[in-house]
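[step 3/7] fold_predict: job queued, chain A
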Amino acid sequence: MRFVLAAAILAMTGCARKPANNASANLEHDFEQMMNGATLVGHSTTTHRDGLSGEERYAIDKVTKIGAETWLFQTRMHFEGHDFPLPIPVTIKWAGDTPVITLTDLSIPGLGTYTARVVLYRDQYAGTWSAKHGGGQIFGSIVH
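[step 4/7] structure written:
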């Protein structure tokens, strides 16, 4: 009888774990769908300065999971009339069902070193950023 009870408990415990893995896989799939081919269109602020930036656009061609929490963002940067590919490895943390882009002192050659926390939810993003000489907030829409 104990064996049957133990087997039933083990079976139920094993079944309880599968949805968590499936839920994670579903969240990651939805994240890929949201970010692949997206452009973040919005504005930023700078701490201790009034007003908003002009429109900012961050083009994301594709995101690929390359580690437990690390994703490679294949982005394009528009500079002086040219598009440049810019692969950026970022850490994605999950706040429940919501992905949060996490950069900490990430050096981007030619651009500087940045720290950011950006929440992505439905068709919007919002967060904070900082660099050597300042910081502020960013926010806008995720456009396909």
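[step 5/7] annotate
Residues 104 and 115 are 4 Å apart (CA to CA).
The chain has one domain: 2-143.
exit 0
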